[in-house]
């Protein structure tokens, strides 16, 4: 079955960077876009960007341009989200999600990133 | 960016009630709306795609309707396990945006 497994919780200080990984299984990794969505405590869902695992092409939300980088390693069917220059308001749960025909049909369990001095 | 405005932000209902949640887009988006259910501490789960198509495995008491700018998620007979927050999402254009969520309490 389709599985998206994310890396564990991270604690970072302001100004640092974080990498969250999303390892997929149960389907052809290069066949579907992967998106990243975050959710701050008590808040709604916020789309950050997406990667085409086949080509590596990316699209980012304007809000995160210059701070977020999405990459993938097809040899280990894993996508990565790097977020730099972390601030306290980047504290959130970060999700990866598979796109199937314009909907997110499978999600990872989420990775909590806490930014605090 | 396309704004998605959900209402209400929360609601309280009883088991067996019919519940409706609205989502309004800031511009016409055809039927490019999806609905997700999110339980506390869990990832969102796809319920409805393309405004009115039921995702496989989702109970038939969930339904969606609408096109253009106005969309509705309906739970025909609320069950205790439906306690959750519900999110609409537009997939018409990037950045794909979500509503602020509707918390359903029993």
Plain-language structure description:
- With 117 residues, chain A is mostly beta strands.
- Helices cover 0% and strands 52% of the residues of chain A.
- In chain A, strands 2, 4, 5, 6, 9, 10 and 11 form a seven-stranded mixed β-sheet that branches. Chain A has a four-stranded antiparallel β-sheet with strand order 1-3-8-7, with no helix packed on it.
- In chain A, a hairpin with a 4-residue loop joins strand 7 (68-73) and strand 8.
- The model of chain B has no long low-confidence stretch (mean pLDDT 97).
- Chain B contains no helices and eleven strands.
- Chain B is globular and about 35 Å long.
- Chain B starts with a strand and ends with a strand.
- Chain B is an all-beta fold.
- In chain B, the strands form two sheets. In chain B, strands 2, 4, 5, 6, 9, 10 and 11 form a seven-stranded mixed β-sheet that branches.
- Chain B has strands spanning 4-7, 10-12, 19-25, 33-38, 45-49, 53-54, 62-67, 70-75, 84-90, 97-98, 102-105.
- Chain A binds chain B through residues 35, 37, 44-47, 50, 59, 61-62, 95, 97, 101-105, 107-110, and chain B through 1, 32, 34, 36, 42-46, 49-50, 55, 87, 89, 91, 94-101.
The total beta strand count of chain B reads 11
Determine the oligomeric state from the structure: heterodimer
Helix content of chain B: under 10%
Order of helices and strands of chain A: EEEEEEEEEEE
> Strand percentage of chain B, roughly?
over 45%
- Return Rg of chain A in Å: 13 Å
Strand content of chain A: over 45%
Largest sheet of chain B: 7 strands, mixed
Based on Cα principal axes, name the global outline of chain A: globular
- Secondary structure tally: strands of chain A: 11
Helix segment count of chain B?
0
Query: Could you give the distance between the termini of chain A?
Result: 40 Å
Largest interface, Cβ cutoff 8 Å: A-B, 21 and 23 residues
